[in-house]
Amino acid sequence: MTTVPQVSSINSRPISQIAVIGAGLMGHGIAQEFASAGYRVRLHDVTNEQLESARTQIEQNLNLLASNAIIQEDNISQTLHRIQTSTELEAVAENADFVVEAVTENLPLKQQIFGKLDAICPPHTILASNTTALMPSQIGVNAERKDQILNTHYFNPPYLIPLVELIRSPDTSDETVEATFELLTAVGKTPAIIEKEALGFVGPRLQAALIREAFAIVEQGIASAETVDLVVRNSFGRRLSVAGPFEVFELAGWDLVLAAFEELYKDLNSASDINPLLRQMVESGKLGVKSKEGFYSWTDEKIQQLRERMNNALIQQAKDAK
Ligand SMILES: NC(=O)c1ccc[n+]([C@@H]2O[C@H](COP(=O)([O-])OP(=O)(O)OC[C@H]3O[C@@H](n4cnc5c(N)ncnc54)[C@H](O)[C@@H]3O)[C@@H](O)[C@H]2O)c1
């Protein structure tokens, strides 16, 4: 069965051709999402090896989704067929109606790519960045079409996490925001419009606050990293997937929250510098699974088990939401 995308448009031109720039962890999953919903996608990276690896990964992801009945089996070959790849930026961007940039998190690189995209793409094309923390006004400095630039911030893995933060700069037009909102909705995402640009938007800001306090707890010897993970996973982490922090505390009552936090806040970490423990870990090569050593020691088997645990839970949530 062919999935026919709903048509969203910019300047009355239908959006049908998508370009994704950067085919790494996020880029391949974003390309997959658009192709799976019926859009034609062109995917760009600097090497053919990376593009081949992205295609293999997309096929594996689609097989996983089909074996869990989240997509239909015949969607796999159709989706793969809709994705073309190229190491030439021009070939990928010249006919695009909507571009998502997902290259390495590096401001000068993103600024350079947006400058090139602005020169290559047709005038109606919307340019979106999947940056984790940078603002669209920073990324778009070299482009003329500032009204057609915004961020679409996906969460990993993009094919299992529905939310996309949609961040506008003061120059982004309402039409660009509306067209992007419609497009993301048409591919089955849940867009959240962030009205005022700020570093880290909503999701990364909240995660940064949580991990800052988690590091402080470990550094001060209050609890080990294992205990922090145990507490979060088996307590408020469970609630947070079904109710947001404001909903949770509205149930508790703000009077109770005020009484509980008045003393506690004085003791929380509010440092604007990176925790020395984090710097120390990076300097000593304790990067986590990448170097097989972080707060935990990692074997290939343990890494696989953690990935499977996370994927299985996210798949179950995706099934429940169907
Ligand atoms: N990893 C996450 O969980 C996550 C979540 C949300 C957003 N992001 C953001 O998404 C972006 C990509 O992150 P990632 O995790 O996919 O990184 P990644 O390293 O897996 O992929 C980046 C890709 O960009 C390619 N690239 C580098 N320079 C390029 C260029 N000049 N032209 C074309 N391609 C180029 C690299 O070859 C690589 O394949 C970053 O801005 C990151 O902050 C990451």
What key phrases describe this protein's structure?
single chain, 322 residues, alpha/beta, Rossmann fold, N-(1-d-carboxylethyl)-l-norvaline Dehydrogenase, domain 2, two-stranded antiparallel sheet, 14 helices, 10 strands, globular, binds nicotinamide-adenine-dinucleotide
Kindly, what is the distance between the CA atoms of the first and last residues, rounded to a whole number of angstroms?
A: 18 Å
* Helix percentage: 40-55%
The named CATH superfamily of the largest domain: NAD(P)-binding Rossmann-like Domain
CATH-level-2 architecture of the largest domain: 3-Layer(aba) Sandwich
CATH class annotation of the largest domain:
Alpha Beta
Shape: globular
Low-confidence stretches: none
- The number of helical segments is 14
Write down how many β-strands occur, each being a DSSP E stretch of 2 or more residues: 10
**Main β sheet profile:** 8 strands, mixed
Strand content: 5-15%
Arithmetic mean pLDDT: 95
Reported by name, the CATH topology of the largest domain is Rossmann fold
| Gyration radius, rounded | 21 Å
The hetero molecules present are: nicotinamide-adenine-dinucleotide
How many domains make up the coordinates? 3
Q: Name the strands of the widest sheet in spatial order.
A: 5-4-3-6-7-8-9-10
- Helix-and-strand structural type: alpha/beta
